[in-house]
Amino acid sequence: MKKILIADDHQLVIDGIKLMLSTETDLECVADAHSGQEVLDYLQNKPVDMVILDINMPDLNGVETCRILQRDYPEVKVLALSMLKEASLIKLMLKNGAHAYVLKHAGKEEVIQAIRKVFAGQNYYSEEVSEIIMASLAGQSTKEKPQSPFPQLSRREKQVLRLIVDEFTTAEIAEKLHISFGTVETHRRNILIKLGARNTAGLVRTAIEYGLLED
């Protein structure tokens, strides 16, 4: 029986995956977590064979959690399950040790197939994820400029980051860019993940140190 831990900050997602696994006689969900830190706390005392890992989580995001799992628990398989489709984030998860990357709109058959392929020693990527990776690699081959050590920020993320550096509040950023408060917070979380920062001070320091706001 393969033991699986599900990590996602939405209980509805956790419950859905548990339901998928309940019909599989050789797969068992032994625990769930709502943050990366909860995953690490659990593994200190009890082993699992796989972690199904979301990226956008509080306290410790999936990208950093994946890196720590590869370093401290290399025997644990990691299946990334996320709604995020940006090439830079996908490649960062794979670089940090994820064995599979599946999009959250996948059906039960695909999720189970991904789990079984990983346990068979293979990698698995959703078809759309594979296309995103290939398109990104094709685009890189035409660029002469060396890559940044961080995943590329979108135009909107750069706008938000610039305003954060200029000490605008979330409400002020939302008003200035004509977007919702929640959208600003989503951009902020994604920027934190991409830059590997833990808080706003870390964002500002990294942005200035690496010249991320330069055109």
From TrEMBL:
Domain HTH luxR-type, residue spans: 146-211
Keywords on record: DNA-binding, Phosphoprotein, Transcription, Transcription regulation
Entry's Gene Ontology molecular function annotations: DNA binding
Native species: Flavilitoribacter nigricans (strain ATCC 23147 / DSM 23189 / NBRC 102662 / NCIMB 1420 / SS-2)
Gene3D superfamilies per UniProt: 3.40.50.2300
Domain of life: Bacteria
Listed name of the protein: DNA-binding response regulator
GO biological process: phosphorelay signal transduction system; regulation of DNA-templated transcription
Alphabetized SUPFAM superfamilies for the sequence: C-terminal effector domain of the bipartite response regulators, CheY-like
Residues where 4-aspartylphosphate is found: D54
Domain Response regulatory as annotated: residue spans: 3-119
